[in-house]
C-alpha cells in the first residue's frame, strides 16, 4: 500500500471511528442512563483531543474603559423608572400571527421578565406591557396544544438567527413530506429530536414564574407547570445547552412551588444531559468539550441552569456537592477570562453571576475561588459605561435584573 493510499485509509478509519463514537454518545444520551452517558462521553472527549474545549468561532474580549464605575443606586433607580416606558417598544405585538413573526418567543419572554422585575420594585407603569405579554404567550401555548411553548412557523425574512434556522427546518420538513408532523396551527411543536424547542419553552416558562412572583396571577403558575411537565417529558438531545434549559425551568419550578419532583427531574437531566459534556482536566478544564458549547454564551447558559439547580438541592446532599463541583470548574474557567482579558458575553454572564451571588452569597471561598464577584464587578462596570454612553447593553430581563441589583447595593 503506497503512502497516499495509507493516508486515505487512515483518514477513513478515523472518520468511521469518530462517527461510531458520536453515535454511541447519542444513543446513551437518548437513553437517559447517566452512567452510560458518562462512559460514552469520556471516549468522545478523548477523541476530540486538542480540539476539546475550543470554541467554533473566535471570541472577542471587550476591556472595561479606564475609570468606568458601576451605576450608583440612585442612577440605577432612575434608569429603572425610565425603562418602564422604554420596554413598550419591543418588536412584537400581542395580536401578531405566528407566520408573520420575525422574533422567537424568547423575546416577549424577556420583556415579560423585565416587566416583572420592574413591577416587583414598584414600577406599576410596566404592568400593562407585562399583562399583554402574558396574554400573547398564553395564546401561543394554548394553540400549540402540547403543554410546552412552541416556535413560530415563520419563513419570512428575519435578522434573528433562530428564525433563519427555523425557516430552514421548515423547508427540510416540507421537502420530506413531514410538515404536518412538526407544525400545528402555524406553530412548530415538534423539533424532530433536535431538542431546540427546550430553549424557548424554558425562557417562557421562567418568565411566567417571574410574573407570577410579581403579581400572583395563578394562570402564570399553571402555565409554567404545563411547560415544566412538557420539559420533563422531553428526551435528552446531544446539544448539552438545550438540555440545560429544561434543567433551569424545572429547578425554578422547585424554587417557586417547593415540590421535590421538579428538582428530581432537573437533577436527572443535568446528570445525563449537561454535566457529562464538561471537561474536568487539562488546560480547558471547566469548558464543554464540543466546539459549539465551548462558546461563552452557551457556557453561561449551562452555568445558569446548574446554579439554579444547586440552589434547590439540600445543602449537605452529595448531589449538591456534585453540581457545585461542575459549577466551580465552569465558573473558574470563564470568570477568570473576564477578569484578566475582558468581557466576551454580556446577557447570560450577567444573569448567571447575579444568580451565583444569590445561591453562593454566604460561601466566601466559592466566590473567591471562582472569581465570581470579581467577574461580576468587571461586567457591571462595562455595562454601566455602555449605558452611560447611550447604548442598550443588555436584553430586558438581564437589564432589569442588573438595575435592581445596582439599585440595592
Overall morphology? globular
Strand order of the largest sheet: 1-3-2
Mean of pLDDT: 92
Topology as H/E string?
A: HHHHHEHHEEHHHHHHHHHH
How large a portion of the residues is in β-strands, by DSSP E? Answer: under 5%
Helix content: 55-70%
How would a textbook summarize the main sheet?
A: 3 strands, antiparallel
Judged by helices, strands and strand pairing, the structural class is mainly alpha
Nearest-angstrom radius of gyration?
22 Å
Please give the alpha-carbon distance between the first and last residues.
Answer: 72 Å
Total number of beta strands: 3
Query: How many separate domains?
Result: 2
Provide a descriptive summary of the structure in words.
- The chain is mainly α.
- The chain has two domains: 29-85 and 238-409, no CATH class; 90-235.
- Helices cover 65% and strands 1% of the residues.
- It is built from 17 helices and three strands.
- Strands 1-3-2 form a three-stranded antiparallel beta sheet.
- A hairpin with a 2-residue loop joins β2 and β3 (187-188).
- It is globular, with a radius of gyration of 22 Å.
- The model is unreliable at 1-17 (pLDDT under 50).
Amino acid at each position: 500500500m503506497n503512502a497516499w493510499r495509507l493516508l486515505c485509509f487512515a483518514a477513513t478509519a478515523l472518520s468511521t471511528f469518530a462517527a461510531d463514537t458520536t453515535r454511541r454518545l447519542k444513543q446513551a444520551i437518548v437513553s437517559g442512563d447517566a452512567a452510560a452517558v458518562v462512559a460514552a462521553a469520556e471516549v468522545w472527549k478523548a477523541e476530540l483531543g486538542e480540539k476539546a474545549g475550543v470554541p467554533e468561532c473566535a471570541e472577542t474580549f471587550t476591556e472595561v474603559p479606564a475609570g468606568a464605575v458601576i451605576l450608583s443606586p440612585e442612577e440605577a433607580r432612575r434608569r429603572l423608572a425610565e425603562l418602564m416606558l422604554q420596554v413598550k417598544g419591543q418588536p412584537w405585538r400581542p395580536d401578531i400571527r405566528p407566520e408573520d413573526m420575525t422574533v422567537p418567543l424568547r423575546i416577549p419572554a424577556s420583556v415579560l421578565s423585565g416587566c416583572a422585575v420592574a413591577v416587583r420594585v414598584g414600577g406599576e407603569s410596566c404592568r400593562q406591557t407585562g399583562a399583554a405579554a402574558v396574554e400573547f404567550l398564553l395564546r401561543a401555548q394554548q394553540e400549540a396544544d402540547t403543554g410546552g411553548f412552541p416556535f413560530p412557523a415563520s419563513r419570512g425574512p428575519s435578522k434573528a438567527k433562530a428564525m433563519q434556522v427555523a425557516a430552514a427546518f421548515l423547508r427540510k420538513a416540507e421537502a420530506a413530506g413531514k410538515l404536518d408532523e412538526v407544525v400545528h396551527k402555524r406553530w412548530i411543536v415538534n423539533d424532530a429530536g433536535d431538542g431546540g424547542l427546550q430553549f424557548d419553552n424554558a425562557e417562557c416558562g421562567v418568565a411566567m414564574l417571574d410574573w407570577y412572583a410579581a403579581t400572583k396571577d395563578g394562570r402564570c403558575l399553571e402555565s409554567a407547570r404545563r411547560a415544566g411537565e412538557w420539559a420533563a417529558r422531553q428526551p435528552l438531545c446531544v446539544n448539552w445547552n438545550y438540555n440545560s434549559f429544561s434543567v433551569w425551568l424545572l429547578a425554578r419550578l422547585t424554587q417557586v412551588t417547593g415540590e421535590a419532583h421538579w428538582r428530581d427531574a432537573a437533577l436527572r437531566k443535568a446528570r445525563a444531559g449537561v454535566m457529562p459534556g464538561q471537561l474536568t482536566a487539562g488546560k480547558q478544564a471547566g469548558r464543554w468539550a464540543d466546539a459549539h458549547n465551548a462558546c461563552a454564551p452557551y457556557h453561561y447558559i449551562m452555568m445558569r441552569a446548574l446554579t439554579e439547580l444547586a440552589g434547590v438541592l439540600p445543602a449537605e446532599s452529595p448531589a449538591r456537592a456534585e453540581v457545585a463541583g461542575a459549577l466551580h470548574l465552569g465558573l473558574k474557567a470563564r470568570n477568570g477570562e473576564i477578569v484578566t482579558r475582558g468581557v466576551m458575553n454580556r446577557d447570560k454572564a450577567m444573569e448567571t453571576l447575579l444568580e451565583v451571588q444569590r445561591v453562593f452569597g454566604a460561601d466566601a471561598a466559592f466566590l473567591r475561588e471562582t472569581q465570581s464577584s470579581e467577574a461580576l464587578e468587571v461586567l457591571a462596570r462595562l455595562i454601566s459605561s455602555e449605558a452611560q454612553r447611550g447604548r442598550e447593553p443588555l436584553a430586558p430581563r438581564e437589564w432589569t435584573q442588573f438595575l435592581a441589583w445596582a439599585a440595592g447595593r
